[in-house]
Design goal:
The protein is α/β, with parallel strands linked by helices. It has helices at residues 28-38, 56-70, 88-110, 114-122, 131-142, 153-162, 175-178, 212-219, 223-233, 246-256, 259-266, 273-281, 298-307, 313-335, and strands at residues 12-13, 23-27, 74-79, 146-148, 168-170, 183-186, 192-195, 202-205, 208-211.
């Protein structure tokens, strides 16, 4: 879920077409969970094949990624590796939260409360065995590069943006900024009309860009101080300090210079403080990854989705046709430069 820093960073709304020709390193797990959350039936039931296996994420990777390629974007999906040990508590708490949401979802369905059921269903998404490998398989057939991070996918995506192999890191979370991504794009997976929870109101969701250096400069802080602010608010690796939000945290850090002095004043402590700070500053990443966009394998995509996962052949072939056309157009554009 990441740290909430939206209040202290200015976001610039754009259109997908504004990213044409740009390489975007996408946090795959973050995107996968988004697909599992939003691609559901009216009562919250996810899409499934005839064996009862959830396929919402595969639908998302096919249709939403095709939209990105049609917009001229060059996506590369970065998958999480082994999480750091100090993330264990957070992962355990998230699992409990999802279990509670699952229970409330079932209660709402039984009571005939369809809208309430959908809200709880979205929060109940679990990553099941085989989902990640299926996603990687489909992306491979689609000709989309995949990078396996040694640890956190957001850290790897940020590294790729830092060294210039990607123009943007993409995630709904703000952690990419803590890992040093110069430019972050949000809302790639949820672009379009979205219904507000428990309200009969629809809003247009567009991609938005956050520039790290602009945000640091506007707030008069360094990246190290941004990490300190995040630690006070709470990250994936620590619970933060009670009743301290982003603006209060920034005020405290600017007054005291760093988190250590703030903690002394408040009589608080953060377990693994220096280890977590170092993890944001010097994350476990790799540099020997391959990024090449290839022609989609039409028959393999159709066989994988239609024969193995019971997708509609008509819809899949329509999407694949769009993907092939967009991929060919993108390759022709690249060829003009050589």
């Amino acid at each position: 879920m990441g740290v909430e820093l939206g209040d202290i960073f200015e976001k610039h709304e754009i259109q997908l077409s504004d990213l044409a020709g740009r390489v975007v390193a996408i946090d795959a797990f973050n995107t996968l969970y988004q697909f599992l959350s939003i691609i559901r039936q009216r009562d919250g039931t996810p899409l499934k094949n005839s064996r009862g296996e959830v396929t919402s994420h595969l639908s998302g990777f096919l249709y939403r990624t095709t939209n990105l390629v049609e917009a001229g974007i060059k996506p590369v999906f970065v998958f999480d590796g082994k999480p750091p040990e100090f993330k264990a508590r957070t992962l355990k708490e998230r699992s409990k939260t999802r279990d509670k949401a699952m229970h409330r979802w079932k209660e709402a369905v039984a009571a005939g409360e369809e809208e309430e059921a959908f809200v709880h269903a979205q929060a109940s998404s679990h990553l099941r065995e085989g989902m990640v490998e299926d996603a990687k398989t489909l992306l491979g057939f689609m000709g989309i590069p995949v990078v396996q991070a040694p640890s956190e996918g957001e850290a790897q995506a940020a590294h790729m943006a830092l060294v210039g192999d990607a123009d943007f890191a993409a995630s709904q979370d703000y952690d990419s900024l803590l890992f040093g991504a110069p430019r972050v794009v949000r809302n790639l997976a949820v672009t379009g009309k979205r219904k507000l929870p428990r309200k009969n109101i629809y809003i247009d969701v567009n991609p938005e860009i956050i520039e790290l250096e602009d945000g640091l400069s506007a707030n008069g802080i360094t990246r190290e101080q941004l990490i300190d602010i995040a630690l006070l608010v709470g990250t994936d690796y620590n619970p933060g300090i009670k009743r301290v939000g982003p603006k209060t945290a920034m005020k405290l850090i600017k007054e005291h210079g760093g988190i250590e002095a703030v903690l002394v004043e408040k009589g608080e402590g953060i377990e693994n403080l220096q280890v977590i700070k170092d993890f944001f500053l010097y994350p476990d990443v790799i540099s020997d990854y391959e990024m090449s966009w290839k022609s989609p394998k039409e028959s393999e995509i159709t066989d994988f989705l239609c024969n193995r996962h019971d997708f509609s052949e008509v819809r899949v072939k329509g999407a694949v046709g769009r993907l092939v056309e967009a991929s060919d157009a993108g390759q022709q554009t690249l060829d003009q430069w050589f």
